[in-house]
Amino acid sequence: MAALQKQREALEKEEQALKAKSHDKILSKIVQMAKDAGLTASDISKAMDAGKGGKTAKAVRAAKKNSLAGKKVPAKYRNPANPEQSWTGRGVAPTWVQSLKAAGTLESALIPNSRLQFKRLLFHTILRPCRG
Asked: Nearest 10 degrees: CA dihedral of 120, 123, 124, 128?
């Protein structure tokens, strides 16, 4: 039993040595390819970090662009049948909104807001017909 244990340990050491030798060969190939491509160690490090699920600079900029991300916005529509239900106009539309859309009466559920109604009026009467 002890002899088998020694053989196993010897084989594991040999396996580790072969892996290290293989890794050295692969790393030297990677280094040569990086030099040929003009990549720096920081370029490779950034690429490795991006693969780990960390946020890239592009993703961070995209998240910062939308200033309303994660903030509450006022509701734009109120359910005529149940005034306690409202919808901001974002995300998946509730069933009552879908039924109003299907009936073509969604505008009747708009919450009175002079600024919002003015924008809608402007868009539907002036801007939209110009788009052709």
From this structure: -160
Tell me the mean pLDDT per 10 residues along the chain, length 132: 88 87 82 83 80 60 62 83 88 92 88 66 64 56
Output the pLDDT for position 99: 93
What is the secondary structure of the chain as a DSSP string? -HHHHHHHHHHHHHHHHHHHHHHHHHHHHHHHHHHHHT--HHHHHHHHHHHTTPPPHHHHHHHHH-TTTTS-----EE-SS-TT-EE-S-SSPPHHHHHHHHHT-GGGGBPP-HHHHHHHHHIIIIIHHHH-
pTM over 0.70: no
